[in-house]
Design brief:
Elements (H helix, E strand, L loop, with lengths): L2 H11 L4 E3 L6 E5 L3 H11 L8 E3 L6 H4 E2 L3 H10 L4 E7 L5 H4 L4 E5 L4 H10 L3 E2 L14 H8 L19 E4 L6 E4 L2 H6 L1 H5 L2 E2 L15 E4 L4 H10 L4 E5 L9 E3 L4 H16 L5 E5 L8 H10 L2
Parallel strand pairs: 3-6, 5-8, 9-10, 11-14, 12-13, 12-14
Antiparallel strand pairs: 1-2, 2-7, 3-7, 4-5, 5-6, 8-9
The protein binds threonylcarbamoyladenylate and magnesium ion.
Threonylcarbamoyladenylate binds next to strand 5 and strand 6.
C-alpha cells in the first residue's frame, strides 16, 4: 500500500476528513460510522442536515452491511454498473447513523470507479461518506486543485487523482419503494438507463432548484438567439464570459463547448470554475441539444442558471 493511501486511511480512522478523487467529482470523505466525522462534513460544507450523504464502498458485497430488503433489480444494477457512476438508494440497516441519512429509512450507496478511491476504500474496509467536496450550492470539484481552493487548510490531505473522468455527479436511482425512481440524472443515464427511465417517475431533486451554481448570474441561451442575445448584452454594457459552440462576439473570455456529451460533461465544472473566477457580470451559456445523452448536462445547466 502506498504511503499516501496509508495516510488517508489513518486520517479516516482518526475521524478526519480528506479530499478523495472519484470518476464523477471529488468527494469530501469521512468515516461513515463515526458521528464526529459526519458532523464535520456537514459543518465544512455548510450543508443542511436534511440532505443525506452517499456511503462509498469498494465491493458490492458490502451492500448488505448498510441496506436490507435488497431487491433483485438492485443487485442486478450493482453487479452491472459498479464500480461506476451510479448511486442506489435502498432501505437502510437499523445500525446506520441517523446523521448520514437525515433520519430517513433509506441509505444511498455507491462503488466509485477510481483506482485511488478504491484503494482507500479497500484499505479502510468500511463505508466512507462523501458528498461532493464543495460548499453547499457551489460548483462541484473535478480536480484536487478545486478542492484545495474550496477548503484550503481545513483538509490535511487532498488525494490527487487527476481530473475526474465523468465530470458530473452519479446517477441516483431510488429502489427503496414499490417502483424505481430516478432522483438524479448522471452520465450513466445517457447510455443505459433508457429502459429504466421508461418505468420510473423522474423526480430530480427539486427542493433546491438553484444548485451547482457559479459565482455569477448565469444565462442559458438557445442557439438560435445566441448572437442577438450577446448583442443586447454588449449594448447594455454587460460584461460577460461564455461557454458556447458558436463564436461569442463581445465576450471577455469565450470557452469552446464540446459537441460530444461525454467530453462536455467531463469539462463542465472545470469550465464553470474558470468562468466563475473572472471579473464579469454574467456567464452566458449556449444551450446544448435536448437529446437524451445531454439530459444530465441540461439538468445541471438549468440549475446553474436557475
Ligand atoms: O458522484 C457522486 O455521487 C459524488 C461523488 C463524490 O461520489 N457525490 C455526491 O454527493 O454527489 P452529494 O452529497 O453532493 O449528493 C448526494 C445526493 C444529494 O442530492 C442527496 O440528497 C442524495 O444524494 N441522497 C443521499 N442519500 C439519499 C437518500 N437516502 N435518499 C434520497 N436521496 C439521497
Ligand atoms: Mg453535491
Amino acid at each position: 500500500m502506498s504511503a499516501q493511501i496509508e495516510h488517508a486511511v489513518a486520517l479516516l480512522r482518526a475521524g478526519e476528513l480528506i479530499g478523495l478523487p472519484t470518476e464523477t467529482v471529488y468527494g469530501l470523505a469521512g468515516a461513515a460510522r463515526q458521528p464526529e466525522a459526519i458532523a464535520k462534513i456537514f459543518a465544512l460544507k455548510q450543508r443542511p442536515a436534511s440532505h443525506p450523504l452517499i456511503v462509498h464502498l469498494h465491493d458490492p458485497a458490502q451492500m448488505d452491511d448498510w441496506a436490507r430488503d435488497i431487491s433483485p433489480l438492485a443487485r442486478d444494477l450493482a453487479a452491472r454498473y459498479w464500480p461506476g457512476p451510479l448511486t442506489l438508494v435502498l432501505r437502510r440497516q437499523a445500525n446506520v447513523l441517523d446523521a448520514l441519512t437525515g433520519g430517513q429509512d433509506t441509505i444511498a450507496l455507491r462503488v466509485p470507479a477510481h483506482p485511488i478511491a478504491l484503494a482507500v476504500l479497500k484499505a479502510f474496509a468500511d463505508g466512507v461518506a462523501a458528498p461532493s467536496a464543495n460548499r453547499y450550492q457551489r460548483v462541484s470539484p473535478t480536480t484536487a486543485e478545486h478542492v484545495r481552493a474550496e477548503f484550503g487548510s481545513a483538509l490535511k490531505l487532498v488525494l490527487d487523482g487527476g481530473p475526474s473522468e465523468v465530470g458530473i455527479e452519479s446517477s441516483i436511482v431510488d429502489l427503496s419503494g414499490e417502483r424505481p425512481r430516478i432522483l438524479r440524472l448522471g452520465m450513466l443515464h445517457a447510455h443505459d438507463f433508457g429502459r429504466l427511465a421508461a418505468h420510473s417517475d423522474i423526480r430530480v431533486p427539486g427542493s433546491d432548484a438553484r444548485h451547482y451554481a457559479p459565482e455569477h448570474p448565469t444565462a442559458l441561451i438557445a442557439a438560435e438567439h445566441w448572437i442577438a442575445h450577446l448583442q443586447s448584452l454588449t449594448l447594455s454594457g454587460t460584461r460577460f464570459a461564455s461557454l458556447a459552440y458558436q463564436p461569442a462576439p463581445g465576450a471577455l473570455q469565450a470557452l469552446e463547448a464540446s459537441s460530444d456529451a461525454l467530453e462536455y460533461a467531463q469539462a463542465l465544472y472545470a469550465n464553470l470554475h474558470v468562468l466563475s473566477g473572472l471579473d464579469v457580470d454574467l456567464i452566458a451559456i449556449e444551450a446544448p441539444p435536448e437529446s437524451p445523452e445531454w439530459a444530465a448536462i441540461n439538468d445541471r445547466l438549468r440549475r446553474a442558471s436557475g
